[in-house]
Predict the structure.
Amino acid sequence: MPRIPTALVRKAHAIDAFLPALLAPCRDMHAAQNELRWLREHVDKVAKARRARGDVLAKGALLQKLVKQRASGKPLQYLLGTEYFGNLVIGCRPGVLIPRADTAASITHLVGLLRNAQSIPPELRILDLCTGTGCIPLLVQHELYSARKDVDLRVLGVDISSKALKLSNDNLQRLRKGRNYVDRGKVQFIKADVLIDPFTDQMEGSMSLKAALNYKSQPPFWDILISNPPYISPSAYWKTTARSVRGFEPKLALVPPPTAKKNDTEQGDMFYPRLLEIARDVEAKVVLLEVADVEQALRVAQHARHLGIFDGVEIWREQPDASTEDAIEDDFAIVGNGNARSVLCWRGAGTLWLGKSATIPQEDDAQCLFRASECHFYGGAVRPGGSSHLDAQFDRKAFFGFPETPTLKR
Amino acid sequence: MLATPWICRSCLSRIARPLFRRHIRFQTTGAHTKSIPPALLTRARDIASAHQQLTDKLSDGFDTRAAKKLGEYSPIVNALGEWDKANESVTELTSLIHDSATDAELRSLASDDLSETRTQLAKASQSLITSLVPVHPFAHLPCLLEIRPGAGGSEAAIFAGDLFRMYQAFCNRNGFRTNLVKYENVNGTTEAGVPLSEAILEVENDNAYGVFRSEAGVHRVQRVPATETKGRTHTSAVSVHVLPSLQENSAAEQDFDDPESDYYIDLKEVKLEVMRASGAGGQHVNKTESAVRLTHIPTNTVVSMQDSRSQHKNKEKAWALLRARIAQSRREKREEEMANMRRSVIGVAKMGRGDKVRTYNWGQQRVTDHRSGTTVHDLDDVMEGGQTLENVMESVRGWLMERDVEALIADDDGTK
């Protein structure tokens, strides 16, 4: 990191004595000035609340303490206790990942597509895995209910961390105050470990997602699956993450847990195969997964295609709503502006909800499942859409009872 | 002989001057038009006949557009009727007085009545003119007051702060709801008491643009600044921009989608830039940067907002500001075209941005508005946003209306 010029430090000091300290984490005069202003506003707010309770507060001392903490790199969001996510205010606490603006942009864009959809089921079920602060379920609810009155929502957030669950419930309570639509539909949070395979022997500790859904008497099928899982590989964690992220945000939410026999990239991608399997098991029609960069996005998109259950896969950048010409890479459309940020998959009815035209002819779900298992058999060597011998037999005889075509030699 | 052997010069000169100074008014602002310009009168008559036609049409069947037009015309027609009546009685009374056949008693009665009828006539013609002058298309909107220091360095910045407080006090006193959109002092913070570098105040009441329209322009200050050590008087300038503001709940919301409206902006023509951390983004960084910059590509208008921590709020604020600025520039352009057309007909002193509109002189404790020619001497009351400021603003509004009337007549002459 380049050193901050002395002239800049001196200039900052001339404006405000607290500014030079804030230059260290902000690296930039404008950002430092803004942060100082927000810290001041926060201190004023705290002092006012204390005064209302008949208490006094030394404003200068509190500000000094906060600036000192910020200078050490502690994220401003933890100091102020809130972060803006879309137009919601989400509470933040150490131990839980701070919501990112990029995530909000993808969610807003997705809900924007759903808003215009004609044929949405009367109860739309949305599953959010690795929910953290609960920002995604809350934003989805806020955005959809402010636009559509005819849909009931059922949103479930899942996380492994009890700290995150506590915070997400607090955030739900906080937003419930002074809003009238929260009583419609349901937002809930449960604890489960997404990575545990439900068919292996149950170990001590957390439950698998399937077990947790049963245990909490949640429905087994969901329409939309959203997830912002840990996606940073161990080497990228040391190389690319910002210092305040590394020093203060939970590693649990950033890097998948270490496993033997996996290289660096594979470990970064560890969550995605499992998430896509869950999407298949809960019969999700639309899947939105956040990713780190364009390489990971392409790997995830390839994997989704190999799975063979989706009618279309698309990659979104940081600003998916920006009107730019769509790029095509490896047959995947890349939408928007900025770094590649998420992968969107859809199938069946989801095609209509998103207003997409089906790229692959619609197939029966059972058939897709069959093909997917076939892919597994041959180690993914058989591409979906390519007609293997088994496939053709399955098509005509077992399911549809089509007359045999004369060209087909048996 | 005098008791004293000599008289001092100052006493002598005092004797030479009159005891009370006569007040001579060199410039008059209250030029009430007793008679209506013929062009305006024919216009009123045209409207009256159109009104009659519309009434006939409406008696046959209902038509929304015709009914709306009728509603617009009826105050003019009423005012014209009143003016006709007053005019007729004046001519009747005059003829009665001048007729030699009238007896003396009747004549004295008539002359008593005449003065009263004359004032009635003046009133009627005034109201006829007012009803004929078109209302400013944005007058019903709330407005944005933008205050920025001009020439004069830190003194200008100090005076900008004074002006800002003056308008705030004025709004408080007159019950205008205000909202501070942006406040930045020379250090780039929002702390009060430091010279101002830019302030944007939104007046949320309806009709606020009509009230504050008169304030736009360069305000000049002449005083010994607080920063001056040698006691010299400085002259500095502060520019005040007044823009009609469009909020979501205002009446003109539907205009956003109407391509004819000044506030219409094609979304494709605006580039939205979000300040982002360079590099990986996503979970790798937790930036607090929430600044938003909008660029309107055809006019190259740039608006950036970074006040709030919420990117969403910054975006909303930036859009409101961009719409206001673009609408203003479009309107100015249109007005410029119209003014160019009129300039050949009459010498309208177009109120440009470059000319100063008002002077605040501390040494003489006076405020002079250069457009209406009004001078008031209660400077403190003006700076506190009191009644005196209201008087000055009222005089400017009157002046603006007169300009509009002149322009209207010029238009009529031009079309003939």
Chain B is about 45% helix and 15% strand.
